[in-house]
Amino acid sequence: xxxxxxxxxRDVGGVAEDVIEDVVGFPLGRHDDLRALLGxxxxxxxLEQPLAPQQVIIAGERAGDVSEHEYxxxxxxxxxxxxxxxxVLDGLRGPVYVHIDLDVLxxxxxxxxxxxxxxxxxxxxxxxxxxxxxxxxxxxxTEHAPSSDDVNPGEAETIRLLGAxxxx
Length: 168
What we know:
- By secondary structure, the chain is an alpha/beta fold.
- It is built from four helices and five strands, in the order βαβαββαβα.
- Strand 1, helix 1 and strand 2 form a beta-alpha-beta unit.
- The chain is globular.
């Protein structure tokens, strides 16, 4: 993972832009917020010092419309699909902000997400990958959307393990 960037509904929040070396996002959804982080958005919604595309890594990409993919390709940011997820670690240096949209996971195993997309990563694979990221200064885990108050114990354990990997 890299930069403390974000994707989907990624949000760097209070993390100072000048502190972030890399942002890693495990989405994928609409990228209006990512565009704002890169300085491409309405006045007042963009950072005073936008992130450079080289600071953002998208991992687990497998959805999105043509215009979204064209925009991301044009930026030159690093993007990896589920098959080459581990490449996120190549050249990654901190400090790092990690944003995880849980819809990066395979919905047959982790289905309580807002935008389930087939052929996602297996939960343990993502936990193992996040465990290898050093110098994490901030993180978000988003897109958990159970349909009732009865949370799936396996999904709850995945979130717990991801949280532990981020906090180590």
